[in-house]
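Researcher: Go.
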Amino acid sequence: MGAIFDAKILHAIAKNATGLDTKDAAFAQIIEDLKDEYRGHVRDDIPWVFNNAGGAMGQLKLLHASLSEYLIFFGTPIGTEGHSGRYASEVWDFIIDGEVWCYEEGQFERSVYGPGDVAYLAGGRAKGYAVPNAAFMLEYARGSIPGMMPFGIADAVFSTLDPPTIGKTAWYYSRLVVGELLKGKV
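Model: Structure:
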């Protein structure tokens, strides 16, 4: 079994949760809708963990992880900026709350994404991005997820020197991947 998630459905689910009273309410609504749509493939028991990648710091909550897809909540309450990374995988960021700015090489005006918008990163491409204040999103990646892992942990290894975060990230990702492999999901 390859990709199971549909970016259009994920966008609709995330968009449906924008404008709720609290972020917790939005996250709960999204998780409920994801579990209804993708039974047995979405977890909500993994805690939030820090993530430093591409010079940016945020926090993430794994909802699904396999060898070919991941689905997370990602964001920061205090703003950040950095490099998106360049992968063979595709990445969609469905903005739930806040604002995200992006630009690509040769682009001289920023692209601005707010609640209900989707920022897409094609395979082989890279962006600079900023969260000027605070933002949270549902992020979906499709492709070789293990190939993305070095980017996801390099800052924690070589810059922030944060072994607990590396360990938690690897442990939770591995647990979810094994669970999906046991279901026949690559």
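Model: The helical segments are 7-16, 23-37, 149-158, 163-182.
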